[in-house]
Amino acid sequence: MTRIFLIFSVLFLLGGCVTTQQKDYAKFNEAKPSSILVVPVVNRSVEVTASDYFLSTISIPLAENGYYVFPVNLVKRMLEDDGLSDSSLVHSAPAEKLAGLFGADAILYVTINQWDSTYLILSTQVTVDISYVIKSGKTGETLWEHNQKMVYVPQNQNTGNPFANLIVMAVNAAVAKALPNYVPLARQANLKTFAFPGPGIPYGPYASKSAQ
Questions:
Q1: Are 62 and 38 a contacting pair, CB within 8 Å?
Q2: Domain ranges for the chain
Q3: Nearest 5°: CA angle at 57, between 47 and 40?
Q4: Which of 95, 96, 169, 179 could be bridged to 135 by S-S, CB 3.0 to 4.6 A?
Q5: Of all residues in the chain, what percent are helix, strand and coil, respectively (each to 5)?
Q6: 120-165 pLDDT, tens per residue?
Q7: DSSP state letter for 161
Q8: 24-149+183-192: CATH homologous superfamily?
Q9: In Å, what is the CA distance from 7 to each residue of 33, 111, 119, 176, 201?
């Protein structure tokens, strides 16, 4: 069983797009945010735990890019206490109002479009598709946006025996379907999304010199 999980842990990671469209950073650079408020995620997938799992992955890449990130779980709790327990309502609320509650310069809105595993012939494909939007906390204007899709499938090991190979492939596919591990894939999506230079946001005021 240990060997099966070792095989399963070796993944092929595929980006959603081959080329990256050049971003326009004029509005973002003009706003010069130093703090980012991450509001609860809108989850359009069938996996009910997707939003909570995703929230656990988002703070680190933003902080490493040099921004103060308000504690995501505390933000979620405070918004719930303020009557905003529905993430869709949070996303439709005025950005200026949300930012004012915390004193944030900008707000990150995340929508999970896809977070699922699909059984194929002797294989399972796990997919996350995420949309990111950052808006100004002062004007509500969109400063930056990006969509990232990531896919992985288990890498099957060649045992040298065709029949044994089929068994290994079937077991790997079953394990991936029963226990899909989305978190590493979500982390990879975040790393690609916020990579700079690239599709990500420019470095913030707290970025280390080694990161720039």
A1: yes
A2: 24-149+183-192
A3: 60
A4: 95
A5: 40, 25, 35
A6: 554 667 789 999 999 999 999 999 999 999 987 655 444 444 434 3
A7: -
A8: ABC-type transport auxiliary lipoprotein component (3.40.50.10610)
A9: 43, 31, 17, 11, 35
